[in-house]
Amino acid sequence: MRNITPRLNEKLKSSQQTPAANADPKMSIKVSRARTTVMDSDYWTTEIIRKGSDLGDISLAPRRQLNYGPPNWIYEIHIESGIVKTAIREYPDRLKGGWGEQFTLGPGLAVGIAFDGEWLLYRNTWRLITHEKPWICWVDETNVLWTQLWDDETTRYQLATNVVYVRMIRAWKNVNLPGKDQGIVAGYIKADGNVYYRNYCTQEDKSAVWENERQVTEFLGTAVSLNPFLTNDYRTGFVIEDSQGKIHWLITKRNWSGM
Question: Tens digit of pLDDT for each residue in 17-33?
Answer without folding.
Answer: 667 666 666 655 555 55
